[in-house]
Design a protein that fits this description.
Rossmann fold, two-stranded antiparallel ribbon, 15 helices
């Protein structure tokens, strides 16, 4: 079997920064002035190189007033962009956490006003995606279906913001956004599953205490690896800080990493990704007419039945599968995905996400997106099976980075020369802390639902998400092992886009309605 290791991490794309260092020539010992000038220049260069690592000695707060119309009503609000220090048991600062909070003006009783803490995933992602794409008062502008637009980019008031029903606090974990460890060499202390959860929980405690929100209804929303963090926080906040939250909103969920890792000996992802392969082939009109003319719902129903039936049994039997039965499974797989029977057979019935993304549009010299399989991009290596890049990521990265960097300084008045790291590889290697096991925080969420029967959970999944497929999420929630009486506390909604379903304007409208309804019912 091929040794392809797939890491499905949020928004989970890492970039490696490189530096160009000019070699100094041997100085002329007779020219002391030139030597002194060169020395000064080298010292300035060192200062420039260390700018990214610099952390202010004081917390910063910038407050501005704004107004927006949401759902036909005017919402006046205060925006606070700032930093909060995390401290150790010696009261020494260990990290500076950057956040942006939006609180509605004119609220006399905070105990009636919900507050929602938001973040994205990665690990290594800032909170910019949910902030500027779905929840915040401003959003980056793309085409209506989420297709990219050329620079320069622009942003508009977000009429689908959640600010009409809840205050919002966007959190950048350590090493993302403007958040940094106080000592650069200590950053790795925050780059693990447990320490990340602990540090974000500590921030939430501090913000809640300083802003007198302990008696407010509290919600958490995370996307991608942010859902891993959110599930972990449900236990950390309750057990360490004795803070129960009213609701958790999970956008493009990964709680059990066994459902996503294409690792040798783990056949589960091949089954759980399959319905999204079928939906993607349907979207790109690659299926035979008898299937292509059916609705997406009908195609998915057939794909799910095949995945959990004949296909699962074939993988379970392994080499014990008869030749005739294998041929039947190959034929049905090909029918539902449009991949050639020869390719499926050569893959030993196990086609990874990366291989599927390259093979579906192979004849057009294109590959499909991982975050959103509606997107396509050209390839250079026509023989390879690995993704050269993610077309769905490249479609939005620059738009979000550009609009946020302009917005935070121009509109919010927060000034910093640090680079705002929207998505970084600086957190690698991430400490998963599981040895040979897969990370699984679904057990934490199940415990939280059991201990706090008032806790509600909302799950949002996109049919074209090849990073955290909807069927893998369904599998996870079908295996929580909670009492049947608690299952009503979990609500799942589905969208006709991908990982960031809110890029598609009709899905953004639906997401707003779904989340607002959830918050109102859970506060």
């Amino acid at each position: 079997m091929r040794r392809f290791h797939f890491l499905a991490l949020l928004f989970a794309i890492a970039f490696t920064a490189s530096q160009l260092v000019a070699a100094d020539t041997e100085p002329n010992r007779d020219n002391t002035a030139a030597e002194a000038t060169k020395k000064e220049k080298k010292e300035e260069d060192k200062k420039d190189e260390s700018k990214d690592m610099a952390v202010s000695k004081d917390e910063k707060t910038q407050i501005t007033k704004h107004s927006i119309t949401v759902g036909g009503q005017q919402v006046d609000y205060t925006a606070t962009a700032g930093t909060i220090f995390l401290r150790n048991n010696k009261n020494e600062p260990t990290a500076s956490i950057f956040y942006i909070a939006y609180t509605r003006d004119g609220v006399d009783d905070k105990t009636k006003r919900p507050v929602t803490f938001s973040f994205n995933g990665g690990p290594g992602s800032s909170s910019v995606w949910l902030h500027m794409g779905a929840l915040g008062p401003k959003r980056a502008v793309l085409e209506e279906d989420g297709s990219p637009v050329p620079p320069p980019y622009r942003m508009v008031d977000n009429e689908y913001s959640l600010l009409d029903v809840t205050d919002l606090v966007f959190i950048d974990p350590v090493s993302t956004g403007y958040s940094r460890a106080t000592k650069p060499e200590d950053a790795r202390n925050f780059h693990s599953v447990d320490s990340d959860i602990s540090s974000v929980a500590d921030f939430i405690r501090l913000y809640t205490t300083r802003n007198e929100r302990w008696m407010s209804p509290k919600f958490i929303i995370g996307e991608s690896y942010g859902t891993t963090r959110a599930a972990g926080l449900s236990g950390e906040l309750s057990s360490v800080h004795r803070m129960n939250v009213n609701g958790i909103m999970l956008v493009s969920t990964v709680l059990n990493f066994m459902t996503l890792r294409f690792a040798e000996g783990n056949d589960l992802p091949y089954v759980l990704f399959f319905p999204t392969y079928a939906s993607t082939a349907w979207y790109h009109k690659k299926l035979a007419p008898e299937l292509q003319n059916q609705s997406l719902a009908d195609v998915l129903k057939q794909a799910e039945e095949f995945a959990t039936g004949d296909y699962s049994q074939a993988l379970l039997l392994g080499d014990g599968l008869s030749a005739d039965r294998r041929q039947q499974v190959v034929a049905q797989y090909a029918k539902l995905t449009s991949l050639s029977p020869q390719f499926i057979d050569r893959s030993n019935l196990r086609v990874s996400m990366s291989e599927f993304s390259r093979e579906l549009l192979h004849d057009e010299n294109k590959m499909i997106g991982r975050f959103d399989s509606r997107y396509t991009g050209y390839v250079r290596d026509r023989l390879g099976l690995d993704m050269e890049y993610d077309p769905s990521g490249e479609a939005v990265f620059s738009a979000y980075a550009s609009t946020f960097n302009d917005y935070v300084r121009r509109d919010l008045g927060f000034e910093s020369d640090l680079p705002y790291k929207i998505l970084t590889g600086d957190v690698q290697p991430w400490n998963w802390g599981q040895g040979n096991n897969y990370v699984n925080v679904a057990t934490t969420l199940a415990d939280s639902l059991t201990r706090n029967p008032f806790l509600k959970v909302h799950v949002s999944s996109g049919y074209y998400d090849l990073a955290t497929p909807y069927f893998a999420t369904e599998y996870t929630f079908n295996h929580l092992g909670i009492d049947p009486a608690l299952q009503k506390n979990v609500t799942q909604d589905f969208y006709t886009a991908g990982h960031m379903m809110y890029l598609n304007l009709p899905d953004l409208k639906k997401l707003k309605d779904d989340l607002a309804r959830f918050i109102e019912a859970s506060k």
